[in-house]
From TrEMBL:
<protein>
    <submittedName>
        <fullName>Hydroxyphenylacetyl-CoA thioesterase PaaI</fullName>
    </submittedName>
</protein>
<dbReference type="InterPro" id="IPR029069">
    <property type="entry name" value="HotDog_dom_sf"/>
</dbReference>
<dbReference type="GO" id="GO:0016289">
    <property type="term" value="F:acyl-CoA hydrolase activity"/>
</dbReference>
<dbReference type="InterPro" id="IPR003736">
    <property type="entry name" value="PAAI_dom"/>
</dbReference>
<dbReference type="InterPro" id="IPR006683">
    <property type="entry name" value="Thioestr_dom"/>
</dbReference>
<feature type="domain" description="Thioesterase">
    <location>
        <begin position="37"/>
        <end position="111"/>
    </location>
</feature>
<dbReference type="Pfam" id="PF03061">
    <property type="entry name" value="4HBT"/>
</dbReference>
<dbReference type="InterPro" id="IPR052723">
    <property type="entry name" value="Acyl-CoA_thioesterase_PaaI"/>
</dbReference>
<dbReference type="InterPro" id="IPR011973">
    <property type="entry name" value="PaaD"/>
</dbReference>
<keyword id="KW-0378">Hydrolase</keyword>
<feature type="region of interest" description="Disordered">
    <location>
        <begin position="116"/>
        <end position="136"/>
    </location>
</feature>
Length: 136
């Protein structure tokens, strides 16, 4: 997944840690990521959380997708800051799962809390095309 994840690349998201049911990703907030109030656009905070969720719930060769998600914003951030999203599996049973993602700023203060619900399809992940991606 990391080799062909173009959204991750587009937003400067980097993988700090990957384990079964857990992912830690970081994203620097740039000037192009703030809204008209000068704060990080909520959709981009959601994007970081959703990306961490995707990496945490794709634990095997089966394609797992979101069946729903919600987010609660706790603190505004600004350009120049770095956000870190930590996604952790709460439970997984059959084809369904529940994952929590905490997003913090560089001081460790909570920026948002995200809860994602996953559904494992009956498809296997496609092989990365030759020469695709690069370092994750």
């Amino acid at each position: 997944m990391a080799e062909t994840d173009r959204a991750k690349e587009a937003f400067g998201i980097e993988i700090a840690e990957l384990a079964r049911g857990r992912a830690v990703l970081t994203m620097p907030v740039t000037d192009r990521m703030v809204n008209g109030f000068g704060i990080t656009h909520g959709g981009l905070v959601f994007t970081l959380a959703d990306t961490a969720f995707a990496y945490a719930c794709n634990e095997d060769a089966t394609v797992t997708v979101a069946s729903g998600a919600d987010i609660t914003f706790a603190k505004a951030t600004h350009a120049g800051q770095t956000l870190t999203a930590t996604a952790e599996r709460r439970w997984r049973s059959g084809r369904n799962g529940l994952y929590d993602v905490t997003i913090v700023d560089e001081t460790g203060e909570t920026v948002a809390e995200f809860r994602g619900r996953s559904f494992s399809t009956n498809r296997t992940a496609p092989a990365a095309p030759e020469g695709a991606g690069g370092p994750a």
